């Protein structure tokens, strides 16, 4: 059940994170006097002055980082407990944070990305773009111990986490492999959308594997995992019907609304 719940929570969180990311672009564009629309995995970035364009482009990654940080604070205030909603909050936090980090990493290569366009506006030389990418890669390894500790705080009661091998097995089954299934589930929301943007959206979704892969090799988490709930008090492992309903609602929202464009 952990695999299914984590994959479902990942896809649900990714669809929410992507929509919020594009909304951040749109809100800044609207504040600057434009009439933007958000679509499935993209926003029709209006072109204004260099300063206006830079503000609109930066709003997405920065907004994702801020929202991810807020979700992480919320997550950190909760108890170590297994459940779909706890997994959803975990993914909302780290997908938001990694949206920003992964944009740094792809700066030299993804010309359609927000950070690459920002670099173009500011005329950043090639070496600075690679320096930004290296900075992003460094953030992955710095954040991995914290992400790993958060993963352990969602473990079902009785999960062995004392040994490194047991921790790697838990991350592999509970987060690494479910991420691939979650990418497939996320892809259903691209039906009716523009293929090139859906492709980039799914590429970015898959790109979150970098943090999970780095977490597999954390020898000791920076944060001490809080004690897990006692088996008698812990929720029984099951697929959450409300979680399925939320995921389906988001897919329908993407297919029926965002595929056509939604004014901000």
Structural class: mainly alpha
Beta content comes to under 5%
Rg, please? 19 Å
**Which stretches are low in confidence, meaning pLDDT under 50 for 5 or more residues running?**
228-232
Order of helices and strands: HEEHHHHHHHHE
Distance between the termini: 38 Å
How many E strands?
3
Tally of discrete structural domains: 1
| Biggest sheet strand line-up | 2-1-3
Task: State the helicity in percent bands.
Answer: 55-70%
Average pLDDT score = 92
Largest sheet: 3 strands, antiparallel
Give a quick rundown of the structure:
The protein is an all-alpha fold. The protein has 9 helices and 3 strands, in the order H-E-E-H-H-H-H-H-H-H-H-E.
Written description of the protein model:
The protein has 9 helices and 3 strands; from the N terminus they run H-E-E-H-H-H-H-H-H-H-H-E. It is 67% helix and 3% strand. The longest helix is centred in the N-terminal third of the chain and has 30 residues, at 2-31. It has one domain (2-21, 70-256). The relative contact order is 0.19. Helix 1 (2-31) runs antiparallel to helix 2 (50-77) and helix 3 packs antiparallel against helix 5. Strand 1 and strand 2 form a beta hairpin. By secondary structure, it is an all-alpha fold. The chain has a 3-stranded antiparallel sheet.
What is the element layout, followed by pairings?
Elements: H1 2-31, E1 37-39, E2 42-43, H2 50-77, H3 84-105, H4 114-121, H5 126-152, H6 164-187, H7 195-206, H8 209-216, H9 241-258, E3 262-263
Antiparallel strand pairs: 1-2, 1-3
